[in-house]
Amino acid sequence: MTALLEVHALSKSFRGLRAVQDASFDVGAGEIFAIIGPNGAGKTTLFNMIAGAFAPTSGTITFCGERIDGLAADAICRRGIGRTFQIVRPFPALTVVENVMVGALLKERQAALAERKADEVLRQLDLYERRDVRAASLTLPDRKRLEVARALATEPKLLLLDEVMAGLRPTETDRMVEVLKAINRSGLTILLIEHVMRAVMALAQQVLVLHHGAVIAQGDPAAVVRDPAVIKSYLGTEMAG
Amino acid sequence: MMRLLFSDVSAGTRALLLVLAIALFAAPFFVGDYLLTILILIFYFAYTGQAWNVLTGFTGYLSLGHAIYVGLGAYTTAALYVHFGIGPWVGLPTAVLICAACGAIMGFLAFRFGVGGVYFAILTIAFCEFTRIGFDHLKWVGGSGGLFLPVANYAHNDLWNLRGSPTMFYYVMLIAAIVALALCRIMMRTRIGYYWLAIREDEQAAQALGIDTFRYKMLAVVISAAMTSFAGMFFAFYYNNLFPEQTLNIARSIEITLGPFIGGVGTLIGPIVGAFVLTGLSETLNEVLALLGIQTPGAKQVFYGFALLFVIVLMPHGIWPPLAKRLGLDKPTGRRAAKGAQR
Description:
The structure holds two protein chains of two kinds.
Chain A: E1 3-14, E2 17-28, E3 32-36, H1 43-51, E4 58-63, E5 66-67, H2 73-78, E6 81-83, H3 96-104, H4 111-124, H5 140-153, E7 158-162, H6 170-185, E8 189-193, H7 197-203, E9 206-211, E10 214-219, H8 221-224, H9 228-235, H10 237-240
Parallel strand pairs in A: 3-8, 3-9, 6-7, 7-8
Antiparallel strand pairs in A: 1-2, 1-4, 4-5, 9-10
Helix pairs in contact in A: 3-4, 3-5, 4-5, 6-7
Chain B: H1 2-6, H2 11-30, H3 33-58, H4 67-84, H5 88-112, H6 117-136, E1 147-148, H7 166-188, H8 191-201, H9 203-208, H10 213-239, E2 241-242, H11 244-247, H12 250-263, H13 270-291, H14 299-314, H15 320-327, H16 335-342
Antiparallel strand pairs in B: 1-2
Helix pairs in contact in B: 3-7, 3-10, 3-12, 3-13, 4-5, 4-10, 5-10, 7-8, 8-10, 12-13, 13-14
């Protein structure tokens, strides 16, 4: 499998704090790749570097064979990486469909076509019924879905999902897992940060574990959760049993 | 284009708009000169409010210095006319270019260096103040002594040179206000409008969706400035005299913002409603006070203050949004328009 995203020796320091240290991994085209780890492990920092929210201190990020480290967020999105925010950021005064249209307008330049595309994505994420509601009045699970819908509407090759399951009930989590699987089957590569192990185990083909900014394990999910280092730093002994 | 303008306007509203348009175009035949000058003022503020709204209402960057574009537009067209005999319509493109360039310089400084919020507002004030002081000393356009356009009693209306009766000025401003409204409505239903709103709502999220936020913010400030320059040309040829202390005074900038604030910032109809309410009521107040024989020079300002206070407390989003809701006209922007275009 060819790598869609190659992260090599990536580091980020905030003054004295080394948030991410020397992280390297490849995400293959068509994969669902999960990054897990305890709070403060550097997952979101890693994500933000890939999405262009800030530039790495050192190391490289290659997407589709092109170096993208240090590019601005919008330039990275235009190259085919869509992202969600851990703390959701809808456009509150706009309706749900308008929110998604803003994403869809990247590829569909006409508003009418963008709206059609947005409706399609909203149906996929069970948000169509709420299309004319202002985003400010959505519940948190719906806002999470809206984040995914908006990113998806930009028609990315790689979708970065930052804790989209957090705050969802188990049934909602299962539904989201199904949706993401369907999206993945249609050919989209997904890189996700997730705390909900139920979702990670159901979705991911590859798991990477970060701890104190460093990669401590990587590989098949079933193998990773048995790794003693992972159990010690993140999962705890109960999970291993 | 007509589809973008009218696709989600109901038949009833269309009929109402038609009646309104006929009434406004017929107005000079029925109202006296005094009322006509008030209507001119109303459409002047409806126009400048609309132009200001592009930057502040749609994109979310508060400008408190829009008088700079009125001033530059006014001085450019007036100076070209006075010094070279170049007519206003021929001079207008130059004024548009100068205003657009000025907006671009300010926008570049602000957006390149991440100046936002109140600091952006202060930057707009600073630009306008610098310009005012500069023009005070610019002898070529009369300095603080003022620039005067030749005034004579015109027997006929000369539209080409904008010399003539209030009726002619009324039609010019009415059409300009309608064109500005149409232009803004079209922009709000195309990509640029959605991108502006996204930037206003959450700039970082907008950027993450692939929007080159710098570029779209620059477009907003340049388009807003260019639109306002036309109001400057009108100002110069309507009033025939320009003084930096008046034309570029911060009070002029504030005046431009009041209509949209009262009517509804970020809405298309708000600036027009605001212009009608503010100008209409303040002129009525002036008349009433005059009739009562009361000499109160500050009455207008006090009235503006109370009107603002009243609206901010009771209708924080302006008069239009709750009014539109009551009239059933508050359909989300773009939604049904797009549906119409599919058919």
